[in-house]
Amino acid sequence: MSLPTAQITAPEDAAARPLAVQRVRFTPEMLHQLRELGVLDAQTRYELIEGDIYPTTPEGPEHAALGTALAYRLMERRSTDWHVRIEKPLRLGDSEVIPELAVVPGRPSDYRTHHPETALLIVEIAHSSLPRDRLLKLPLYARAGVPEYWIVNLAERQVEVYRTPAGDSYQCVQVYTAEATLAPRFAPDWTLPVHDLLDGA
User: Fold this and answer.
1) Is 150 inside a domain boundary?
2) Domain for residue 31, yes or no?
3) 99 near 45, Cβ under 8 Å?
4) What are the helix (H) ranges across 59-199?
5) pTM recorded for the entire structure
6) Domain that holds residue 136
7) How many domains in the chain?
8) Pick from 78, 41, 72, 33: which is nearest to 58 by CA?
9) End-to-end CA gap in the chain
10) β-strand pairing of 82-86 with 101-105
11) 5, 29, 166, 185: which has the fewest Cβ within 10 Å?
């Protein structure tokens, strides 16, 4: 005895209809809550870029040494109008990043209750992190109105300088090689040899 069968017919456009996927856009508050709950590894530092969470790139010895040397160079120039933050969180809209170095307005005591929400200059030291620094962080910094962004490109031994933000990019892009000198816009009379930035002098 055969059992009756039923034929199920899918809608004609089912194959062409894309699967609806709800993207979760995390906020800085959610990021901190995930860390507190133990969902994120407590030994790893994370950045929040446009709603997505990324672990920071581990530093090699060269990267760490250059970052420290550059911080010392920037801190040689003391001011009550700005100060240098080394690998500290920066809140840009709904994103929270940890740049290598950030020159921010004011004194450290101004940020006891909140992270800075702007910077005069951001510096990233890039080797394996170069795609992220160019493709993810650069548009974020431009949209946030960060006036100047440096990428110390270790692989090509040059410093990429981005100035004058416009939309999600920068209008002025210059590349400085080791023989050149470079002055930040917030202190235009302060000249830095590029080879010092590349070699950690």
Assistant:
1) yes
2) no
3) no
4) 61-75, 130-132, 138-143, 194-199
5) 0.85
6) 60-199
7) 1
8) 41
9) 90
10) antiparallel
11) 5
